[in-house]
Amino acid sequence: MKLFISIILFMFSHCLLSAHCQVPCGIYNDESRVVQMIEDLKTIEKAIVKINNLSKHQSNSQDMNQLVRWVETKEEHAQNIQDIISAYFLAQRIKPKEKGEKAYKQYVSLVSSCQKIIFHAMKCKQNTDLSHAKTLRLQIDSLIENYFDKKEKANLKELIKN
Question: Were both Cys, which of 74, 100, 124, 153 would link to 47 (CB 3.0–4.6 Å)?
Answer without folding.
Answer: 74
